[in-house]
């Protein structure tokens, strides 16, 4: 079984828990997920099966869309609702819609984020959440991420109350922490804040309406009716530039040959998918040391 299983991750399970469960249901070992979702987060979790594990990193690198909720009035240790309160400040004024929209606009584009202490980012060979559980705070490297769009999903013209909650939709690049984004929204409005809810609605062109639950998977496996739910490998890398190649060139590509840079090659740093007979057979990039040549990163089909 080779392809991408568009799984809807339930609340309370880690991404690894989902992989373990899928392995058990499908009775296969070669299964991998495409980017961690926190246990409290539900949503789209593409699972790679068999040969599709070769493209897992490219699915992870693709853009994602989330629908979240920010609560303004207090912040937490984990930057979401599962953490302990760190700072609290009563919202003592009305916050106008235009003010919220201005903050969202200000956070759109390329921004600098510092990963939360409760995250899987490694510092000195150790994950940040391991330090956090020991009560140790370490210096965290900030990194650039891209917020492609940030929309307010609330019709109110004015937000009032001792604490304020509103929903938003964020389309973003790999490595973005939506928890941290919620905190930043609050900070720019002048208050401590945290992310009170989050759902991933899309990942690598796989949307929520394409997903199946673990229970659906189990039922379909028993009935032998799973094929229609497995997406082809090509689906996960459809966002990469591609070139259709001839039969003769396809044989060389399947054998991992170095090639002269084609005329239609998009750019020096591109990763390009070669297609033959409507199948993605390999991913190539510029050779790092041999000028004028390209080399394979992944050979996907060599039969």
Automatic annotation (TrEMBL):
Ranges that cross the membrane: none
Record domain tRNA pseudouridylate synthase B C-terminal: where: 179-236
Gene3D superfamilies, A to Z: Pseudouridine synthase
InterPro entries listed in its UniProt record: PsdUridine_synth_cat_dom_sf, PsdUridine_synth_N, tRNA_psdUridine_synth_TruB, TruB_C
Record field: catalytic activity: uridine(55) in tRNA = pseudouridine(55) in tRNA
Record-listed E.C. numbers: 5.4.99.25
One Pfam family hit: TruB_N
UniProt keyword list: Isomerase, tRNA processing
Segments forming domain Pseudouridine synthase II N-terminal: 23-178
Active site positions: 38 (nucleophile)
GO molecular function terms attached to this record: tRNA pseudouridine(55) synthase activity
Function as written in the Swiss-Prot or TrEMBL entry: Responsible for synthesis of pseudouridine from uracil-55 in the psi GC loop of transfer RNAs.
Family, similarity comment: Belongs to the pseudouridine synthase TruB family. Type 1 subfamily.
Protein's name in the database: tRNA pseudouridine synthase B
Organism: Bacillus spongiae
């Amino acid at each position: 079984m080779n392809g991408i299983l568009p799984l809807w991750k339930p609340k309370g399970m880690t991404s690894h828990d989902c992989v373990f469960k899928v392995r058990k249901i499908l009775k296969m070992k070669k299964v991998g997920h495409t980017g961690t979702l926190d246990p409290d987060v539900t949503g789209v979790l593409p699972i790679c099966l068999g040969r599709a594990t070769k493209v897992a990193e490219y699915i992870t690198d693709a853009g994602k869309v989330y629908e979240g909720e920010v609560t303004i009035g207090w912040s937490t240790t984990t930057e979401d609702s599962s953490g302990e309160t760190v700072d609290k400040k009563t919202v003592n004024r009305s916050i106008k819609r235009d003010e919220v929209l201005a903050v969202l606009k200000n956070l759109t584009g390329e921004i600098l984020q510092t990963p939360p202490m409760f995250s899987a980012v490694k510092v000195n060979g150790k994950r940040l959440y391991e330090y956090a559980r020991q009560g140790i705070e370490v210096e965290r490297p900030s990194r650039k991420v891209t917020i492609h769009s940030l929309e307010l999903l609330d019709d109110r013209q004015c937000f009032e109350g001792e604490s304020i909650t509103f929903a938003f939709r964020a389309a973003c690049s790999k490595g973005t922490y939506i928890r941290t984004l919620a905190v930043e929204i609050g900070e720019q409005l002048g208050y401590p804040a945290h992310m009170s809810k989050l759902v991933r609605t899309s990942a690598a062109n796989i949307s929520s309406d394409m997903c199946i639950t673990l229970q659906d998977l189990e039922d379909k496996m028993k009935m032998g009716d799973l094929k229609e739910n497995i997406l082809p490998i090509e689906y996960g890398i459809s966002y990469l530039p591609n070139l259709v190649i001839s039969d003769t060139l396809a044989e060389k590509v399947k054998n991992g040959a170095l090639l002269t840079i084609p005329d239609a090659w998009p750019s020096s740093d591109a990763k390009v998918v070669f297609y033959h007979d409507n199948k993605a057979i390999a991913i190539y990039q510029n050779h790092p040391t041999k000028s004028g040549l390209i080399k394979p990163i992944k050979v996907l089909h060599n039969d």
